[in-house]
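Final report, Chapter 2: Outcomes

The project's central promise was a pipeline that accepts a single protein chain and returns its three-dimensional structure in a standardized token representation, suitable for archiving and comparison. That pipeline is now operational. To close this chapter, we reproduce one record exactly as it appears in the project archive, with the input sequence first and the structure output second.
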Amino acid sequence: MNTNKIIIAGGTGFLGECLATYFSEKGFKTVILSRKEKKSVGNVSFAKWDGEALGDWQKELEGSSTVINLSGKSVDCRYTEKNKKEIIDSRVKSTLLIGKAIQSCTTPPKLWMNASSATIYRHSENKPMDEPSGEIGDGFSVEVCKAWEKALTQMETPDTRKVALRLSMVLSKRSGVMAPMMNLVRFGLGGAMAGGKQYISWIHETDFVRMIEWIMQHEDLAGPVNICSPNPITNAEFMRALRKEMKMPLGIPQAKWMLQFGAVLLQTETELIVKSRRVVPTKIKSSGFEFLYPTVQDAFKEIILPG
């Protein structure tokens, strides 16, 4: 078994690039399963797959240490029936496919981490949601997560530990959600959204990749794991902290109807903003993991360059 070989399915997106950069710099051989053919760069190589059928790519899993599946159509779109079907199918099919590839291995990966989302929990303003006691919500986004995790659970991989990564919003200076939020602040529109009482669960990019490495190193971690900071905050607090770090005193609030109108124009859904995700990482914190960026103020100081 190659204990320094990691496979990342759907690894050409932002999170996949974060992981590939981190682990390749630490000397891991990293193979990205991608729909597009690309040339190898350093310790990072690419294998072509379509997320729907077995093929030559499955040989990469043989004897590897970890496979991480991040595949899935972006939820940043309008929830038409066509898009809903593609969102669910892209996640479930790729998960089942990875499971079949693992089952075909003579020496299967020791660990399979599959993406999920912190949005699986109910809208909560009154109390935090964690893995042992969190209450599962309802609605389309929750149904996506439930189908996603069910696909992971139903695949029998007795020699491969399985972890469902319940991901929160990942903050980074390189990409992700920070650019549009910072633009709102620059134009004076960085006030509370839809009242601002809804909670935001988040994680700094560095703590995100460190958490993935921690899970690899701690064999007692299995099942759902919340990937988030220990300090979720309200939307109003989040935007206030961002304005402070960007030295912008003015932030015009945005009413829910304004967000709904903007969502239509931008072809997205307001749920991504108005749902309260008050999620905390009980499992990984109990295992001894220590955060480099435990508060959003810590994260913003690293992300936002002076001036």
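Archive annotation: DSSP finds ten helices and eleven strands in the chain.
This record, like all others produced under the grant, will remain available to the consortium after the project formally closes.
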